[in-house]
TrEMBL record:
<dbReference type="Pfam" id="PF17837">
    <property type="entry name" value="4PPT_N"/>
</dbReference>
<dbReference type="InterPro" id="IPR041354">
    <property type="entry name" value="4PPT_N"/>
</dbReference>
<dbReference type="InterPro" id="IPR003542">
    <property type="entry name" value="Enbac_synth_compD-like"/>
</dbReference>
<dbReference type="GO" id="GO:0016740">
    <property type="term" value="F:transferase activity"/>
</dbReference>
<feature type="domain" description="4'-phosphopantetheinyl transferase">
    <location>
        <begin position="104"/>
        <end position="177"/>
    </location>
</feature>
<dbReference type="InterPro" id="IPR008278">
    <property type="entry name" value="4-PPantetheinyl_Trfase_dom"/>
</dbReference>
<feature type="domain" description="4'-phosphopantetheinyl transferase N-terminal">
    <location>
        <begin position="30"/>
        <end position="97"/>
    </location>
</feature>
<keyword id="KW-0808">Transferase</keyword>
<protein>
    <submittedName>
        <fullName>4'-phosphopantetheinyl transferase</fullName>
    </submittedName>
</protein>
<dbReference type="InterPro" id="IPR037143">
    <property type="entry name" value="4-PPantetheinyl_Trfase_dom_sf"/>
</dbReference>
<dbReference type="Pfam" id="PF01648">
    <property type="entry name" value="ACPS"/>
</dbReference>
<feature type="region of interest" description="Disordered">
    <location>
        <begin position="233"/>
        <end position="257"/>
    </location>
</feature>
Length: 257
């Protein structure tokens, strides 16, 4: 499913359903130490998503290696690789690419159901809530609050390897567009306008990211695949989803979240 929202440079591996019970038996010792005290379900998901990642790395030409998370939980990929992992009940996926092709990747999967009460107010800005209310009236089959949350997770997973800094939910503002129904039903694009100074990629300070989303098989999926080289003609900012002029590009370093 996730391949439909990724570029050709990215290699994806996914699995649906319950992970195999003995999945933890295939962890590297360094990985097993990370989840040594975790409940069985956590160990199985941790191992199953890493099995996806090692398969994807193999398709890219890399040998199996331990994929140990750092202090923020982000997997530490082999030199020359960028990637991202995600898992929720019934779904797990990993996406990798050579760092010469993509600068960063962020993916996320969530069940296509409503967020728990109170969560939307924590993870969104007022303008975002107004926009997803309008979208929900047009497409009630998509849980736009959950899609918004997923897209913000993808934004963070793209941002963090480039900056090493946290990014709060209110420091990026999102807007969504649907694809034409006869072109790619149940899919579309989104833009994320960074409200703090963005990372520098290819000598260009970015004002935001663009990504793609899809809904299917009971899940919402989001992905950002950031090219390693930003075209010289590309703007250093993304459009303001509220219709206001883009914010000026800052010359300062990205601020901690």
């Amino acid at each position: 499913m996730i391949e439909r929202i990724l570029p050709a440079e990215a290699v994806a591996e996914e699995s649906l359903g319950s992970p195999p019970a003995p999945a933890g038996d295939f962890l590297h010792p360094e990985e097993a130490a990370v989840v040594a005290r975790a409940v069985p379900k956590r160990k199985e998901e941790f191992a199953a998503v890493r099995a996806c990642a090692r398969t994807a790395l193999g398709r890219l030409g890399f040998p199996p290696v331990p994929l140990v998370p750092n202090r923020r939980g982000a997997p530490q990929w082999p030199s020359g690789v960028v990637g991202s992992m995600t898992h929720c009940d019934g779904y797990r996926a990993a996406v990798v690419a050579r760092s010469g092709a993509l600068a960063s990747i962020g993916i996320d999967a969530e069940p296509n159901g409503p967020l728990p009460d109170g969560v939307l107010d924590v993870v969104s800005l007022p303008g975002e809530r107004a926009r997803i209310r309008s979208l929900a009236a047009l497409r009630p089959g998509v849980h736009w609050d959950r899609l918004l949350f997923s897209a913000k997770e993808s934004v963070f997973k793209t941002w963090y390897p480039l900056t090493g800094q946290e990014l709060d939910f209110e420091e990026a503002e999102l807007a969504f567009e649907e694809a034409e129904p006869d072109v790619d039903p149940g899919a579309g694009t989104f833009s994320a306008r960074l409200l703090v100074p963005g990372p520098v990629v290819g000598g260009v300070r970015l004002g935001g990211f663009t990504g793609r989303w899809a809904v299917g098989s009971g899940f919402v999926l989001t992905a950002i695949a950031l090219p390693a080289a930003v075209p010289a003609s590309a703007p250093a900012t993304v459009p303001d989803p509220r219709g206001e002029p883009p914010a000026p590009v800052s010359g300062s370093a990205a601020s901690p979240a």
